[in-house]
Every structure is written in structure tokens, then in C-alpha cells.
């Protein structure tokens, strides 16, 4: 049952969730750096002015900034073929508006990349992953201002040039389609709408949000063109938070509702980045929601010329869609209604391995370009036993089922080239800012109150995943 030869097994992280060292080496303040911790009972907050005696998880995270050699050695021990990580924009351009990149930031990432290459681990670099320079949020309200496009392209120029020959695969924006939903305001678009300090529940202005998303589309397309010009071997992809959903019932109204949700949640961004143009359904959606996208005359040509080379996505859960308001339920990042046929994680995310096979087939049938699953995993409460071991059989079971689903999709004819489970080492949760929600194969002694010595220890899943990689997916 082996996967194709050369299949890229690995893991995925994000700079703001694991690096720490939030002002080290001349780094500037990012949007993530002004977000407090949170939990099930206390919402993550945004504090434009840093507060004394308030815990900001990104400031230390898991201290990967000082421990990357140890961490990459552990990834190599598992047998990683690829490591997906992000570059913090503010390490390279602290405010986003400098004319010259910060050498200390470039050197840090060059050292990290060289450490990967030492172990024959291919770097897969996300250029922007939920950590816009906070100065750009303050000055421009993030991506709502078209001037940010050129600032992003300048950033791309610096890293494409510096890491030419060492990095071949790039992703322009993490989960860009979050910008099509209210949760994407500060998270992915850098938009801060005053009126609430709650991170995930800001005042939403769809006109601003979709205009900002358009600017990201243009920036991504320009980055694709620039990356190809600087190094013809560069492969530049998109990254979508694939929000798989089903009709709750066979009622045609539910089927139509699900189709509409899938179009805006998943296909809008994929179509623009892979096909190079807005899809036909966008026109009616924009009209009915009073959204007017302001374009420059050259924008359509830029999108057409900046199509991505491969498509990557995250997959964690599925939900159901219905027109019956009484059937809708909360407690889930994606909203919608709960599926009575599925069980849920500790965080209320419904576990659906078969949905991954369905998603892979749908995506590949639509776009016909290579795919990668670059985030997938189970956030859970991991407990250290008296003997120091961590038996996370629930995580092994989750991943095993999803790997089986991927293999079935490969047999279905899907061109799947890699798999990088999320949070291969425990890190800070993006949505809640907590450490208790652990995903990794490696446990990190760091806790929600900021305590912990950052020591690393292997979980049971560490050795399991090592065997999976060594057998190219045959030994599950």
C-alpha cells in the first residue's frame, strides 16, 4: 500500500506559533504579537498597546528561535523529507516599509534552511502565515490598502533572492480563503475594526474584507511571476483552508445551501489562484452582498499571468449545511450543523477521514495540478504519565485513518505529492492562543500560564510516524 516514490512526508509549523524571540535580531511587532492567550472559557484578545502582566503566547512560544537545531534534528530522526515552515515578515522587514531587509532576520532563516538541508529535508516555505507587520495594520488597516501589495512583493524579492537554490517550493499566503469569512479579519488580512477586542469576533465589513482579499490575490500573482523570474526552478503554490461540508438533509434547499457555502469558502480563492480569474458565481455573490471590488485596469491580466504551480490545503474536519436555523449549532470553527454520523475532538471539531478522500477528489477533478495536504491533525489534551511517557493513541488513530483516506485518493487517480501534519511539534494554537491544544509528535514543556522549561520529549506518535515514513506509508 506504499505511496508514490518520492512522496514528501514531513510536518508543518508557523513562525508566530513556535519561534518566540518576538523582538530578537531586530524583529518588528506583528499582529500575532499583540494577541493575548486564551482558553475554552476566556477569549483571545487584541491589545494594540502591550499590557504589563498580560501573557502574549507568541513572545516566547516554544522558543524555536533558540532551539531550531534541536527541533530539526528531531524531525530528521522521524525521517522527514520536507518541513513546512513560515518566514516571519517582521524578521525581514520589521515595519513592512523598510527599503532594505534586516540582515539578522535573513541570516536566521538561512541558518534554519541550511540545518534542514544538512539532513536532506526539503524546505517548504510559507511566505505569509498570520503575522502581518502590526505597523501595516495600524497605518493601512492591513490589506484593505492597495499599497501593501508592493510592500509584500518587496519582501518576496528579498527572500526569493537570498534563498535562491536552497528553497524550491513556496506558498504565498496561508489559508488565504479565511479572508472570505469574518474570522479572516485580523487573522489573515490584518484588518482591525475597532469596537471589540475579541480576536475571532470583530466587527465585520464584507466590502473591506473582500477588497483586502483582492489585494492579496494580486500580491500572490505578482509573487508567482517574480519567483519564476528569479529562479525558473521555483514552484509556487497556494494554500487553502479546505472547509469540506455536506447538506444536512436531502432537501434540495440544503443541497443548494451547501453548494453556495462551498463556492465561497473553498472555490473562490482556489479558482482565482489556480485558474487565474474570478469564478462566475462570484458576480452574483458580490451583487447580493453589496460588494464592489475596485480593480486597476491591469489586475485581470496580473491574475491570469500569476497562476500557481501546485495546490496545497489544510484539512481537519467537516460540517453540514442547512437552511433550518434551529438545526445549526455552535462550538465549531466553521459553524454549520453537526453531522450525526461523526464523532468530535475535545474542541468540538468533527472527525471525518472519508471527507479527506472526497475533498482530494473534488479538488483534483477541478484543478488537475499536483496537490499536497499541508495541515492535518488532532488537537488534544496530552498527559504525561508517571514514567514520563505520553501515550497519544488517539492521535495515531486519527492520522492513520486520514493517511488511509489519502492512499485511497491516490488510487482514485489524484496526483498527491506530500503530507505535512500540522504542529509536528507542540505549538501555540492560532485560534485560541493556548498551549493545551496539542498537535505534535513532540511534547513541549510549555503551559497556558506561561510556565515551563521548553524541554522536548517524544510522544508515542513520534515512533509511529517514523515507521510510517520509513515504509512510505505501508506500515500504519
UniProtKB/TrEMBL annotation:
PROSITE patterns: GLYCOSYL_HYDROL_F1_2 (PS00653)
Pfam families named in the record: Glyco_hydro_1
Listed GO biological process terms: carbohydrate catabolic process
Keywords, in A-Z order: Glycosidase, Hydrolase
Signal peptide from the UniProt entry: none
Annotated GO MF terms: beta-glucosidase activity
Family: Belongs to the glycosyl hydrolase 1 family.
Name by which UniProt lists this protein: Family 1 glycosylhydrolase
Native species: Pseudolactococcus raffinolactis
Amino acid at each position: 500500500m506504499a505511496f508514490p516514490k518520492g512522496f514528501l512526508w514531513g510536518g508543518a509549523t508557523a513562525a508566530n506559533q513556535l519561534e518566540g524571540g518576538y523582538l530578537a535580531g531586530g524583529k518588528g511587532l506583528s499582529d500575532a504579537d499583540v494577541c493575548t492567550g486564551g482558553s475554552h472559557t476566556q477569549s483571545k484578545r487584541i491589545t494594540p498597546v502591550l499590557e504589563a502582566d498580560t501573557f502574549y503566547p507568541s513572545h516566547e512560544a516554544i522558543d524555536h528561535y533558540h532551539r531550531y537545531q534541536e527541533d530539526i534534528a528531531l524531525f530528521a530522526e522521524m525521517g522527514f523529507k520536507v518541513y513546512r515552515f513560515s518566514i516571519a515578515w517582521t524578521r525581514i522587514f520589521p515595519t513592512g516599509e523598510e527599503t532594505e531587509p534586516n540582515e539578522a532576520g535573513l541570516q536566521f532563516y538561512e541558518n534554519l534552511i541550511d540545518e534542514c538541508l544538512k539532513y536532506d529535508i526539503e524546505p517548504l516555505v510559507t511566505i505569509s502565515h498570520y503575522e502581518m507587520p502590526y505597523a501595516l495594520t495600524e497605518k493601512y488597516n492591513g490589506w484593505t490598502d492597495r499599497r501593501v501589495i508592493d510592500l509584500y512583493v518587496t519582501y518576496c524579492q528579498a527572500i526569493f533572492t537570498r534563498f535562491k537554490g536552497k528553497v524550491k517550493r513556496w506558498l504565498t499566503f496561508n489559508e488565504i480563503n479565511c479572508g472570505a469569512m469574518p474570522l479572516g479579519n485580523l487573522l489573515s488580512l490584518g484588518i482591525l475594526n475597532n469596537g471589540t477586542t475579541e480576536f475571532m469576533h470583530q466587527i465585520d465589513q464584507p466590502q473591506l474584507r473582500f477588497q483586502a482579499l483582492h489585494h492579496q490575490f494580486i500580491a500572490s500573482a505578482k509573487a508567482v511571476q517574480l519567483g519564476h523570474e528569479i529562479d525558473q526552478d521555483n514552484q509556487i503554490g497556494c494554500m487553502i483552508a479546505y472547509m469540506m461540508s455536506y447538506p444536512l438533509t436531502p432537501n434540495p434547499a440544503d443541497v443548494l445551501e451547501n453548494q453556495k457555502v462551498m463556492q465561497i469558502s473553498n472555490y473562490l480563492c482556489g479558482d482565482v489562484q489556480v485558474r487565474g480569474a474570478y469564478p462566475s458565481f462570484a458576480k452574483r455573490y458580490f451583487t447580493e452582498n453589496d460588494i464592489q471590488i475596485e480593480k486597476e485596469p491591469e489586475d485581470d491580466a496580473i491574475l491570469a499571468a500569476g497562476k500557481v504551480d501546485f495546490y496545497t490545503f489544510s484539512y481537519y474536519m467537516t460540517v453540514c449545511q442547512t437552511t433550518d436555523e434551529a438545526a445549526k449549532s455552535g462550538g465549531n470553527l466553521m459553524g454549520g450543523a453537526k453531522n450525526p454520523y461523526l464523532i468530535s475532538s475535545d474542541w468540538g471539531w468533527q472527525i471525518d477521514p472519508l471527507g479527506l478522500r472526497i475533498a482530494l477528489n473534488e479538488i483534483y477533478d477541478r484543478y488537475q495540478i499536483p496537490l499536497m495536504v499541508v495541515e492535518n491533525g488532532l488537537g488534544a489534551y496530552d498527559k504525561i504519565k508517571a514514567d514520563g511517557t505520553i501515550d497519544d493513541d488517539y492521535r495515531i488513530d486519527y492520522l492513520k485513518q486520514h493517511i488511509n483516506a489519502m492512499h485511497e485518493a491516490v488510487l482514485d487517480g489524484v496526483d498527491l505529492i506530500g503530507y505535512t501534519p500540522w504542529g509536528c511539534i507542540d505549538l501555540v494554537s492560532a485560534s485560541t492562543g493556548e498551549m493545551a491544544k496539542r498537535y505534535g509528535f513532540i511534547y513541549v514543556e510549555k503551559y497556558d500560564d506561561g510556565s515551563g522549561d521548553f524541554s522536548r520529549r517524544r510522544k508515542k506518535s513520534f515512533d509511529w510516524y517514523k515507521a510510517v515514513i520509513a515504509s512510505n506509508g505501508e506500515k500504519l
